[in-house]
Amino acid sequence: MKALRRWGAWLGIGLVLAGCAGLGGGGAPAPDFTVPTLGGRTFTLSQALGEGKPVVLFFMAYWCGTCIPEARALARLHQRYGDQVAIVALDVDPTSTPEALAAFREAAGNPDYIWAFDRDNTVALAYRVTRLDATVIIDPRGRIVFRDEVPTSYETLAAQVARILRPTTR
User: pTM for the full model?
Assistant: First the structure.
């Protein structure tokens, strides 16, 4: 509960600071970032975009039970598209540990996509995320083309990614 209050405080401060930055869908530029991953490396958005890949960001917390179904849906998406899409689960809880995130990953079926930490909520604040289970999809040009803040079904995720990949796979 303490972690939830702390995360909520960070988020509230961030929303005040973010003001009217305008980071909805519809082609807004995606802010670049670098985060540490569960595997001990880093993930940098601009590097993935430089490889011509769309990126799916999933904002979650290691203790979020309602985040597990979307983590599993993203695993199905990863199985379908493989390396054509970078999928990044971002644990936004500042108290998270590698062990806690690994336990969540295991509960979600050990999906083989990128698991990373946004402990200081820099990424969540930059993207104006206000809830867990938030998803942001970025096209290879670095534009936000989809966002929501509810659990997202596999069908919705797959349709959004297919729409982005369609022009490049013909």
Answer: 0.83
